[in-house]
Amino acid sequence: MNAGTRSGTRADARARTGAPRVTATAAAVAGLLLLAGCTGGDDVASPTAGATGAGTGAATSTPSPPASSPSAAPSATTPPPTPLPTPTGDTGGEPAAGDRCTSAVLTGSLGAGGGGAAGSVTPDVVLTNTGTVPCTLQGWPGVSLVGGGDGTQIGAPAVLDRTSEHPTVTLAPGGTALAALRIARADDYDAAACDPQPADGLRVYPPGDTASLFVEAEGLTGCAAGDVTLLEVQALRPAR
């Protein structure tokens, strides 16, 4: 046998011997893959007893109850307001029969008076009972000039003439009481000392009252300077 024939024979032998090795190796790899696939499928299908998660929770939990229906809408009715405390003291109503007359049942005006001395005028402050029961007045009314269209007090209030008699006056419904008022003329004072201001009328406080009446009066002038006093008032007396 020549050299070429021997070489070809050895190559054929190697080819025949290698084919089974490749086939065996492929078969072994395929077996390993099949084994791995079977093992992975078992893990997914059969989780361990201690495992937790969404899947396990869904399999073991009971169905959730249906969502509750929304509560009824609040009523549109406005709740009643909280009662206010009952007022105490003077509520501004009509006094009981025989009690002190208050500004709630009185009106004020200016009467003619008895004529003034030189440099002053002396009208009467007139208080009238507009209530339905008798009431009483005793003492001096508080009086001051006001202006500015808004009740601003002008100057000092009236001085009380303590020498005048001050009886208790009972006013029947419609009855009146008078208090003599002296108003000095602002023109008799130096303008710089007086600071004259036109007045719209008088603010009058009935005796013992903290609420006032406005008495309109034309042609009056007050002194805005606080150290000039133009007014003096006597105690109330019955109308004759």
UniProtKB/TrEMBL annotation:
Residues 77-86 have a biased composition (Pro residues). It comes from the Bacteria. Residues 1-22, 49-101 are annotated as: Disordered. Residues 101-235 form the DUF4232 domain. InterPro entries: DUF4232. Coiled coil: none annotated. Residues 49-62, 87-101 have a biased composition (Low complexity). This is DUF4232 domain-containing protein.
